[in-house]
Amino acid sequence: MDEPKVLEHIGRQKIITINELVGLLECSVITARRRLKAWKAHTSINQNGRYYTLPKIPVFDENGLWRYQAVLFSRHGNLKQTIVALIQGSNKGLAAAEIAELVDLAPNSSFLSQLRNAPGIKRERQDGRFVYLSDQPDIREKQRERREGIAFPTDAQAVVILVQLIKHPDIGVCELTERVAGQGISIEPAAVQRLLQFHGLLKKTPDTGP
User: Does the pLDDT at position 202 exceed 90?
Assistant: First the structure.
């Protein structure tokens, strides 16, 4: 079968394996893989990467994933690249079980342990389970804030908090919160503590509250 007919066949079938492609093209596996590379085909991130599809076929969802029957494809690349992209783009980071559900992994998959030192993400333990967050400090702080439900101070509130800290460098979080309240700003001590942690200033306040 010539190449245009093969492409038409894949378009109708949606996905194809390397062995099927070898049979259609009547070529070697090496040649078939070269054709797939030239076509910029996507490789499935599950099913042991056995399936391929053409770039114009997938309709990716908001996570950049497309499922056809039981086969999953990603616009982000391979499985590891996909998981990193999903974590970086998530509002609250992702727990291991959430990652597993998104990309069809077993919740106890050993693959997740390989993410421990993956570039682009950071793993933290929260409430007895691992949560994966962006390695960008500002993004990670916001993800952590949303997951824990603690509001991060607004820019205006942060200015008042930091000004009071400069004036009173030895006070603790609770007293700092009270002084800020005296400026007409109502904010939780946990939010003040989060701001100081973010800027590396918490060590200056021996009393961090309960």
Answer: no
